[in-house]
Design brief:
Strand content: under 5%
Order of helices and strands: HHEEHHHHHHHHHHHHHHHHH
Helix content: over 70%
Membrane topology: Multi-pass membrane protein
Strand order of the largest sheet: 1-2
Distance between the termini: 24 Å
Protein name: NADH-ubiquinone oxidoreductase chain 4
Number of strands: 2
Organism: Mengenilla moldrzyki
GO molecular function, one term: ubiquinone binding
Shape: globular
Main location: mitochondrion
Radius of gyration: 21 Å
Number of helices: 19
C-alpha cells in the first residue's frame, strides 16, 4: 500500500499536467488490479491497514470514478479557472479516501472519513455551478459534523473500556442500548437514511458535474462501508433495533419513489433516486444475513457507476442549454439518437434490468428481506413497481415530445461518449464476475 501512497504524493507535489494526472490515476488502478488478490479474508498491507474483497473493490471503484471525473471536468481545464486548486484538491481527496478504505483502526478511519467530507465541501463551495452553493455546503457540513461527534465519543468510550480500536477484532460489548443509535448515526447520514437526507439534494443541485459524480459514486458508499464494518459489534445485542430499521428502510424507499415522480429538476430527481436505492440497501443490510450483506455490497458498486453516469448525462445537457427542467427539455431523441440510447441504457440499469449489476444486488436484497419476513412482499412489490415507473418517466419525458428551441444546439462529443461508455461497460460486464461474491 505504501507504493500507492507515495505514487499519489508524488502526483500531488510534482506534477501539474491535467491529462497526465488522469492517465496516472488509471495506471494506478491497473496496478492495483494485478497486485492484490480478491478474497474474502484480510490481507495485511501495513500497520493497522489491510485489504479484503470489500475494501479492494471499493478502492477500484474509487480510482475508476476519479479517472472518469477528470475526463468529465474538461470545462475547468479549457477555461483555465483554478486548474491547480482543482487538481490538488481532488488528489488530496483521493488520498484520504484510499486510506479510509484501507484502515482497520476505527479512529484513523473516523479521522479520514470526516476529512474527506471537508475536502468535498471545499470542492462544492469552490466549483459549484450556482450562487446557492454556500448554503448547500453548510448544510452538508452541519449534517456531517453534528452526527459524527457522537461516533467520536463512542470511539473514546470503547478505547477506555476495551483498549482496542481494530474494527475486525471488536467484541460484542453490551453498550447502553440507546448509545448504539449514536454509533450508527454518522454512517446513516452519509448513506443517507430518509429524514437525514436533506443535505443530499441541495449538495447535488449546487455541485458541478464532477462534484455530483464524487458524491453519488464514492461518498455515499462511506456510510454503507462503515455499517458493514461495525455490524458485527452491534447485531447480537440489538436485533430488535435491526428489525425496526428493516421496516423503516422499506417504507422510506417506497415513499421516496413516490416523491421522485413529483420532481421537475433532473438533478434533484436522480439525487432522490439515490436515497431510494440506499434505503432499500439499508433494509437488506439490517437483516444481517450473508446474502443481504453481499447484496448491499453489490448495490454500492453498481449504484456508484449508474448514478455517476446519469449525473454525467445531466451535466452534458446542462452545459449546452443551461437548464435542468423537465418542463423545457423534450425531444432529445429527435436530435441526438446516440445520447437517447445512452439515456436508455442508464435508465434501465437504474431500474435494475438485466444485464446490469443492480439486478444481482436487488435479487440478493429481496431474498434476504423475504427470508426475514415474507409479509414484506407487498411493500417490496409496490417499491419495485414505482421505481420502474420513475425510471421510465425520467427517460420518456426527456426523449419524447416536441423539440424546444433550447435544444437546437444539442450534440455530444467523442470524449463525452467515451466517458458514458466507460460507466456502462463495468456496470453491465461485472455481473460475469459474480462468482467472487
Amino acid at each position: 500500500m505504501m507504493k500507492y501512497m507515495m505514487f499519489l504524493l508524488l502526483l500531488l507535489l510534482l506534477f501539474k499536467n491535467y491529462w497526465f494526472i488522469q492517465f496516472m490515476v488509471m495506471m494506478m488502478m491497473m496496478m492495483m488490479i494485478y497486485s492484490v488478490k480478491m478474497n474474502m479474508y484480510y490481507e495485511l498491507v501495513g500497520y493497522s491497514m489491510s485489504l479484503d474483497l470489500l475494501s479492494m473493490l471499493l478502492i477500484l471503484l474509487l480510482l475508476w470514478i476519479f479517472s472518469l471525473m477528470f475526463m468529465a471536468s474538461k470545462m475547468i481545464y479549457e477555461e483555465k479557472i483554478f486548474v491547480i486548486y482543482f487538481l490538488k484538491g481532488n488528489l488530496v481527496l483521493l488520498l484520504f479516501l484510499l486510506l479510509t478504505f484501507s484502515y482497520l483502526n476505527i479512529f484513523y478511519f473516523y479521522l479520514l472519513f470526516e476529512s474527506s467530507m471537508i475536502i468535498m465541501l471545499l470542492l462544492v463551495m469552490g466549483f459549484g455551478s450556482q450562487y446557492e452553493r454556500m448554503s448547500a455546503s453548510f448544510y452538508m457540513l452541519f449534517y456531517t459534523l453534528v452526527t459524527s461527534l457522537p461516533l467520536l465519543l463512542m470511539i473514546f468510550y470503547y478505547l477506555e473500556n476495551y483498549n482496542m480500536l481494530m474494527m475486525n477484532w471488536w467484541v460484542n460489548s453490551n453498550l447502553y442500548k440507546y448509545m448504539v443509535i449514536f454509533l450508527m448515526l454518522s454512517f446513516l447520514v452519509k448513506m443517507p437514511m430518509y429524514m437525514l437526507h436533506y443535505w443530499l439534494p441541495k449538495a447535488h443541485v449546487e455541485a458541478s458535474v464532477f462534484g455530483s459524480m464524487l458524491l453519488a459514486g464514492i461518498l455515499l458508499k462511506l456510510g454503507g462501508y462503515g455499517l458493514i464494518r461495525i455490524g458485527k459489534l452491534l447485531f447480537l445485542n440489538y436485533k430488535i433495533l435491526y428489525q425496526y430499521m428493516i421496516i423503516y428502510g422499506l417504507l422510506s424507499s417506497l415513499l421516496m419513489s413516490i416523491i421522485c415522480l413529483c420532481q421537475i429538476d433532473m438533478k434533484v430527481m436522480i439525487a432522490l433516486s439515490s436515497v431510494v436505492h440506499m434505503n432499500f440497501m439499508m433494509s437488506g443490510y439490517f437483516t444481517y444475513f450473508s446474502l443481504g450483506i453481499m447484496g448491499c455490497f453489490i448495490i454500492m458498486i453498481s449504484h456508484g457507476l449508474c448514478s455517476s453516469g446519469l449525473f454525467c448525462l445531466v451535466g452534458i445537457i446542462y452545459d449546452r442549454v443551461k437548464s435542468r427542467s423537465l418542463v423545457l427539455l423534450k425531444g432529445v431523441m429527435n436530435l441526438v439518437p446516440v445520447m437517447a440510447f445512452l439515456w436508455f441504457l442508464l435508465c434501465i440499469s437504474n431500474m435494475s434490468a438485466p444485464p446490469s449489476l443492480n439486478l444481482l444486488g436487488e435479487i440478493m436484497l429481496m431474498n434476504s428481506i423475504l427470508s426475514w419476513l415474507f409479509f414484506m412482499f407487498m411493500i417490496m412489490m409496490l417499491y419495485f413497481i414505482i421505481s420502474v415507473i420513475f425510471s421510465i418517466y425520467l427517460f420518456s419525458i426527456i426523449q419524447m415530445g416536441k423539440v424546444t428551441y433550447l435544444l437546437m444546439k444539442l450534440d455530444i462529443y467523442l470524449q463525452e461518449f467515451l466517458l458514458l461508455v466507460m460507466h456502462l461497460l463495468p456496470l453491465n460486464m461485472m455481473i460475469m464476475l459474480s462468482f467472487y461474491y
